[in-house]
Amino acid sequence: MTVSGARHAEPPLRLTRRGRVVLLSLFFAAVGLAYVVLLTTASPS
Q1: DSSP 9
Q2: Which ranges of 1-45 would DSSP assign to H, the alpha helix?
């Protein structure tokens, strides 16, 4: 008895150079946004 999902197993996700750049850009944008939010919401003491 075979498992039907085994035939349709997709290969691991491979990113192109452009995809890698986009993901890195989104990551750094999120980090920068979080940094700005932390700075603006920090209580001035």
Answers
A1: P
A2: 4-7, 17-41
